[in-house]
C-alpha cells in the first residue's frame, strides 16, 4: 500500500483548477497503461471534457474515459455535478465524441452527500438528470441558449449506463497504487 504524505494532500488541495487538471493529466498518464493517449481539454469549448484517457487509437470515435476535475473550497455541489454530466452527454449525443466509458469526478474536497447518493444509485442519477434537465442543464450548457430535452436526447440519456459515473477524492488518488 502506498504511503500517503500529508504534504501531497495539502498541495493538491491548494491547486487552482488549471493546476489540478494538469496534475490529473500527468497522474493518469503515469498511473496506467490502459490508455493509448491522454489529453487535457480546458476552458470555453471543452465540451465537458477536462482530462480524457483514450482507450484506443480511434480517440473520440472509440472508447474513452473522462476525468472531470473540480476544485472548490467545499465539496462539489449537486447542481455543478449534474450540469457537467449533462454537458458531456449532450455533446456525445451530438456526435462530437463517444459517450464516456467511465466518467470520474476528480473533486479533491469530495462531493456533497446528495450527489454521492445519486452516484451510488445509478438509476436515480439517470432519473434525476432526465427529470430535472430544465433545472440543471437546459439554460446552462450553452451560454445564452436553451438546450431542450427533446425525444432523441432523452432516449440517449435513458440508454446511457449511469453506473459508469464515479468520483475520486485526494485520499483516493494518493492511495491508488
UniProtKB/TrEMBL annotation:
Protein name: Restriction endonuclease
The organism of origin for this protein: Herminiimonas contaminans
High-level lineage: Bacteria, Pseudomonadati, Pseudomonadota, Betaproteobacteria, Burkholderiales
Amino acid at each position: 500500500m502506498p504511503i500517503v504524505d500529508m504534504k501531497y494532500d495539502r498541495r493538491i488541495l491548494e491547486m487552482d483548477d488549471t493546476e489540478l487538471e494538469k496534475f490529473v493529466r500527468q497522474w493518469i498518464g503515469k498511473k496506467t497503461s490502459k490508455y493509448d493517449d491522454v489529453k487535457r481539454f480546458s476552458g470555453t469549448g471543452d465540451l465537458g471534457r477536462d482530462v480524457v484517457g483514450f482507450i484506443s487509437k480511434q480517440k473520440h470515435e472509440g472508447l474513452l474515459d473522462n476525468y472531470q476535475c473540480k476544485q472548490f473550497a467545499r465539496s462539489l455541489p449537486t447542481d455543478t455535478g449534474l450540469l457537467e454530466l449533462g454537458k458531456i452527454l449532450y455533446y456525445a449525443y451530438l456526435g462530437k465524441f463517444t459517450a464516456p466509458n467511465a466518467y470520474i469526478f476528480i473533486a479533491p474536497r469530495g462531493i456533497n452527500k446528495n450527489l454521492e447518493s445519486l452516484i451510488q444509485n445509478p438509476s436515480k442519477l439517470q432519473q434525476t438528470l432526465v427529470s430535472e434537465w430544465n433545472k440543471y442543464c437546459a439554460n446552462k450548457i450553452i451560454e445564452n441558449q436553451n438546450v431542450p430535452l427533446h425525444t432523441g436526447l432523452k432516449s440517449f440519456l435513458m440508454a446511457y449506463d449511469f453506473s459508469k459515473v464515479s468520483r475520486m477524492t485526494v485520499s483516493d488518488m494518493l492511495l491508488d497504487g
